[in-house]
Amino acid sequence: MEKPLVSIIVPAYNVQDYITDCLTSLTLQTYANLEIIVIDDGSTDQTGNICDALASNDQRIRVIHQQNAGLSSARNKGIIESKGELIAFVDGDDTVKPEYVEKLVENLSEHDDISVCGYLEKDNNVEKIVQLPAVERLSGIEATKRLLINQENYDLVAWNKLYRKKLFIEHRIEYPAGEIHEDSLTTYKLYAAARQVSFCQEPLYTYRHRSGSIMSETAKIKSLEFRERAANEAIEYFKNNTELKPVAEIALLTAKFAYLDCAIRGEIDQKHGDEAESWIKEHKKAYRHNPSLTKKLRLYLKLGSLYRAFRGITN
């Protein structure tokens, strides 16, 4: 029986120094039945030419050139152009192990709609292994709950996963154009649509971290604002789902505590922490009745004004 076709979608924008390593790692996959769709998102360096040259030597690679429209647009274009039953995303400056696709496919049972793996974070020459919790699979609902409450990157990001394409098509899920944290606005929808999600602890993907600098206060605030917005959008998305709406509300509460924690550490102006603290105080009574409230968050709510001193000690 022939194994399913896997479409690997590679958004690429001005990654001339990395794209050869990326595509080479994909051509060396031990899984044979795959197509590699590169979306050159209006690169102004040699990325497009490098991709064309590599494609001329490997018929599995297909390069699509488009005007710059952002990562979300590139991914959405790749989904439309894909022919596979299964889809994976690999960023143009990252690499994967030779068994990346094969192990994700093997880990995908007939009842699973998403397969997730661990990964390496590479910053210059320093590598850090990001392992998943020791659980083999969760229902889509339980995986969504974990994502919304814990907000861990291994759940949030798009690129350490293999998806059944039907999740995007049947549920009309796409990446939001023009957003910089598009994964946070999308992955929870895919988890919620999935019957089951399987997990492989092995780090099969290498994520290249290229910032090389400490996040500025402005960037930190924007990140916090986006986390808050994502939680509010999840509340709206699950407004008719009695099981997941309370969990999305917990995501908003943790977003508010994130403001407060950053203010306590001096990473943002204290006024943002004060605003978050006032919001938490105002909504504390309602949250005490939320069935998804964790023991840790219940403790934080009980601490009230003592929370700052508590975090000052524990941070």
Overview in brief:
This protein has 315 residues and is α/β, with parallel strands linked by helices. The protein folds into 2 domains: 6-208, Spore Coat Polysaccharide Biosynthesis Protein SpsA, Chain A (Alpha-Beta Complex); 217-314, no CATH class.
Core attributes:
single chain; 315 residues; alpha/beta; Spore Coat Polysaccharide Biosynthesis Protein SpsA, Chain A; 2 domains; 10-stranded mixed β-sheet; 10 strands; globular
Stated plainly, the CATH topology of the largest domain is called Spore Coat Polysaccharide Biosynthesis Protein SpsA, Chain A
Number of domains: 2
- What sequence of helices (H) and strands (E) makes up the elements? EHEHEHEEHEEEHHEHHEHHHHH
CATH superfamily of the largest domain: Spore Coat Polysaccharide Biosynthesis Protein SpsA, Chain A
- The tally of strands reads 10
Strand content: 15-25%
Summarize the biggest pleated sheet.
10 strands, mixed
Mean pLDDT value: 93
Number of helices: 13
Secondary-structure class: alpha/beta
Distance, first to last CA = 54 Å
Percentage of residues in helical conformation: 40-55%
Highest-level CATH class of the largest domain: Alpha Beta
- Spans where pLDDT lies below 50 across 5 or more residues: none
Rg result = 21 Å
State the shape: globular
CATH-level-2 architecture of the largest domain: Alpha-Beta Complex
